[in-house]
Design a protein that fits this description.
- By secondary structure, this protein is α/β, with parallel strands linked by helices.
- It has 9 helices and 12 strands.
- The chain has a single domain, classed as 3-Layer(aba) Sandwich (Rossmann fold).
- The strands form 3 sheets. The chain has a 6-stranded mixed sheet, with helices on both faces. A 4-stranded antiparallel sheet has the order 2-1-4-5, covered by helices on one side. A two-stranded antiparallel ribbon has the order 11-12.
- Helix 4 runs antiparallel to helix 5 and helix 5 runs parallel beside helix 6.
Length: about 250
Amino acid sequence: MIEVEDLRCAYNGSDVLKGVDLEVEEGTFMGLLGPNGCGKTTLLRCITGSLRPRRGSVRIMGREISGWGRKELSRKLSIVPQDTSPGFDFSVEEVVAMGRYPHMGRFQLTDPDGGASVNRALRWTGLSELRSKKISMLSGGERQRAFIARAFAQDADILLMDEPTKNLDIRHSMDIMSLVRKKNGKEGLTILAVLHDLDLSVRFCDKVALMKDGKVYDIGPVRKVINEDSVGDVFDIDVKVHRGKHMHIEVLG
């Protein structure tokens, strides 16, 4: 679904990605983990085509990223960025409807399937009763659900998320992760998410990729990759990994 090979990228004059290899298979929920500055967001930008790498390749569904038209790619790949400010105080429904833009023709203001897709996305995210509310009036968790609903309304096969639980409390973080995991499980949505919470990652993801110093340190199933040695080396901390029904990472120092 997503294939990245020997990706190298410089940003603001500094080498950020230094030979990244990554594959996300269809239907997988993969978490992308690593310390600040290791290149996670830069990697997402290269995958979306918004940042051109210095070397290497990115393929979406077997096709080089450069071979996709902007709208065509947006029908296959949606993104929930870190900055979800819409710029204006739109209603929830208006924000979600923005996800239909890739499906509109050049002179169209709507698309035939738009209404149904927007309604379905609102139901998925539990926002149907808030559809007329202004986005500025929502809580942090509700606001994040609205932008996830916008991505769902795109009806894309792949969802990229850049720290979707940033600045959310534990309850709202669990709510967001449960929501996208349900979409992944029921409809086979392929997800690659930059995450900062190790416990959320091991609870909801199928696989994880650990990044360090612009490279993928390790990648694979959660229970294989997440251990005291790997987490300690990547994040430079001492941890204890508790392996019960739900794995838990205890930070020791």
